[in-house]
Amino acid sequence: MSVGNKLTTEDKFEIFEQLNLHQLYIDNDASRKSAELYTSLYWPDAKFSVNDLRHVTFEGFEGLKQLYDYAHSVFPIHKWSHSLGWFSITGSGSQANVEWRWIVSWREEDKGVVSTGTYSDVFEKRDGEWRCIERTSNIDPNWPAELFQPFVDAEAATFKSS
Asked: What pTM does this model have?
């Protein structure tokens, strides 16, 4: 944790906006342009770890683009909608720790919630701009993650790179 002044309300709002943009951008299409928009929320040296059926860490632009491409080609993400639940932003100076809940719902077919979980993030402020440097996604342990197994099993046939 960077030592320095407590985070300002403006710092917290800028980070909160990044959380909302993450949910907005993940709901975009599977195009290269959308993948680049999504990856723009992260520093070039960022890491994103996924803990659901898989335990994988994606690093840098290419890794984050692969994460985006995987989500958009292996899962029916075009039928889903992401939203933000509770959140907590703490820190000081140029570093912030953020804990927040993600919620994925069906936007088609009125089926309800697809899944829930949490993100544990580290944000860094560089040249006056906040971006995520490290994110860990954990599926809610009470959620039946095995519902996603058929999609993961079919990844060799469905994965497409933008």
From this structure: 0.86
Phi, psi of 132, rounded to the nearest 5 degrees: -80, 135
Sign of CA dihedral 32, 65, 15, 133: negative
d(CA 22, CA 1): 23
The answer to whether residues 85 and 105 touch, using CB atoms and an 8 Å cutoff, is no
**pLDDT tens, residue by residue, 8-63:** 999 999 999 999 999 999 999 999 999 999 999 999 999 999 988 779 999 999 99
Distance CA 140, CA 145 (A): 8
Beta carbons within 8 Å of 19's beta carbon, 6+ residues apart: 84, 87, 98, 100
pLDDT value at 1 more than 50: no
| Residue 120 contacts residue 133 (beta carbons within 8 Å) | no
Run of H or E including 44:
strand 42-51
CB 152 within 8 A of CB 74: yes
pLDDT of residue 147: 72
Per the rule left: phi > 0, alpha: psi between -120 and 50, beta: everything else, 24 is alpha
